[in-house]
Amino acid sequence: MRNDPAATAAAVLALVGGPANVTSVAHCVTRLRLTLADPAVADDEGLRALPGVLGVVSDGPGRQVVLGPGVVEAVTAEVETLVAAGPREDRGARLKEELRRRNATPVKAALRRVANVFVPLIPALIGCGVLSGLNGLLLNAGWLAALTPALSSIASGFLALIAVFVGHNTAKEFGGTPVLGGAVAAVVVHPGVTKVTVFGTHLAPGQGGVLGALAAALLATRVERWVRGRVPGALDVLLTPAVTVLVSGLVTLYGLMYAAGAVASAIGTATNWLLATAGAVAGLVLGGLFLPLVMLGLHQALIPVHTTLIEQQGYTVLLPLLAMAGAGQVGAALAVYVRLRHDVSLRTTIRSALPAGLLGVGEPLIYGVSLPLGRPFLTACAGGAAGGAFVGFFATLGTRVGATAIGPSGWALFPLLTGNRGAGPAAAIYAGGLLTGYAVGFAATYFFGLTDVVHGSGKVRTADGS
Questions:
Q1: Which of 92-106, 232-246, 305-319, 383-397 holds the top average pLDDT?
Q2: Under DSSP, is residue 363 helix (H, G, I), strand (E, B) or coil?
Q3: CA–CA separation, 2 and 8 (whole Å)
Q4: Which residues are part of the catalytic machinery?
Q5: Confidence class of residue 130 from pLDDT cuts 50, 70 and 90?
Q6: At what angle do helices 303-313 and 209-228 cross, to 10 degrees?
């Protein structure tokens, strides 16, 4: 089943109540994300026992099935096919109301929906980020001068129009017409906004960035619903799109772009100030808390902040700090591997998951190693905190480490690294942070994460006595 996406998809659906119980299907880099009409029927333990499944996150009405990069795309496609072909029961107002009632965490639900807007954009962000980094190297070296303008255009084109994609996805996620969301968001990046004056100043193309596009598309969705419910059916095809774009576009120009621009500027200013004045502390906190966010599936909610920083500064300084959590996880897993020499099954899991962990995919080690053992998850967080403090310390000294795109971490982040002093110093500091995370994660787990090993039995008692 591990190498058969169709079999894995069928087994997953059988354990979540069948195709009729699935109301939506999506995926991120490593996880199959299912929203269930009746989450109570899902067999989480059965899902975790499936070959190829690295972990399961219960998220209110949803289930996040961790499958790993590459595998998740193929399994998701099979799941979508089976759901589309499955029994089409009436899911109407009753199931929607039940879904809302079961979700007792509205803030968490809102963050998840915002993440759903940005997750589909990650492949393009990665691809353009890698090309941007390559172009920067060529420019610095003075090589292939005839090619670098073309590379610059290819790498920058997506970011120049990312507001349109954000608007499209926002309207789709929140129940509007996607192309209308994209049309209103396109106002944010249109060159003609320079002729519009708001509060005595001219607007600039891209002012407000993805935050402005998100707000504009949300407004467009609300306006579209309001208009559609009030115009005659014969005029709907003409009036609804026109009124939606007009009203939302005017509000975007004369309010949302200005406000979102102020918020985006504040994010950039606050981030730079925090790293300049308390970089080590900020890195310690961010690196130490990121693994719990990954465990809960909430780390994707940071994508708008990363994207805003990339739009403003050309790179996000937060991702290298957060990536240190993966280093702590790797160090903790290595310590478990050394200490539990007689636990063949666990050591096999570590050997299988370690390459992915080194490349920044932490879920296999989280759900297969540290979290089941208990205390090693906390010592892994300690390693991440130490690595984050290391990178943050250099930011206080004036050398910031950033990433030109989001998605990869671990060793896979090296091609995307840059900073205010160039790619070389950024890579050196980042490497030092990884080594610090590995070392502290290993030492903390080796000495405090596992206190008693039962030799010869393959069993371990963790520091919390379990």
A1: 383-397
A2: helix
A3: 7
A4: 28
A5: confident
A6: 120
Q: CA–CA separation, 317 vs 342, rounded Å?
A: 42
Name the residue among 370, 206, 348, 205 with its Cα closest to residue 294: 370
Hey, what are 167's tokens? 């608007």
The tokens describing 348, both together, are 């096999």
Query: Which residue, 225, 222, 219, 226, is CA-closest to 251?
Result: 219
The string of DSSP letters for 52-120 reads T--EEEEETTEEEEE--TTHHHHHHHHHHHHHHHS-----HHHHHHHHHHH---HHHHHHHHHHHHHGG
Q: Which pLDDT score, from 0 to 100, does residue 374 have?
A: 86
Of the candidates 11, 158, 142, the one whose C-alpha atom is nearest the C-alpha of residue 79 is 11
The C-alpha atoms of residue 298 and residue 115 are separated, in whole angstroms, by 8
With a CB cutoff of 8 Å and minimum separation 6, the contacts of 48 are: 55, 56, 367
The pLDDT tens digits for 31-48 are: 898 988 888 899 988 998
123's CB contacts (< 8 A; 6+ apart) are 407
Mutual orientation of helices 209-228 and 233-251 as an angle, nearest 10°?
A: 150
Distance CA 436, CA 428 (A): 12
| Residues with Cβ within 8 Å of residue 172, at least 6 apart in sequence | 178, 181
pLDDT for residue 136 = 82
Q: How far apart are CA 127 and CA 104, in angstroms?
A: 37
Beta bridge partners of 22: 36
Q: Which residue has the tokens 């950039």?
A: 268
Q: What backbone torsions phi and psi does residue 154 show, to the nearest 5 degrees?
A: -65, -45
The whole-angstrom separation of Cα 195 and Cα 241 is 24
Question: Taking Cα atoms as reference points, which of 65, 34, 63, 40 lies closest to residue 51?
Answer: 65
Which among 238, 239, 163 has a CA at the least distance from the CA of 204? 163
End-to-end CA distance of the chain: 32
Query: Could you give the CA distance from residue 364 to residue 69 in angstroms, rounded to a whole number?
Result: 11
Tokens 């500027």 map to which residue?
A: 265
DSSP-assigned letter for residue 355 = H
Summarised one tens digit per residue, pLDDT across range 317-354 is 999 999 999 999 999 999 999 999 888 888 988 998 89
CB 396 within 8 A of CB 350: no
Residue type, 134: L
Can you tell me the mean pLDDT for 373-392? Answer: 95
The residue type found at 90 is D
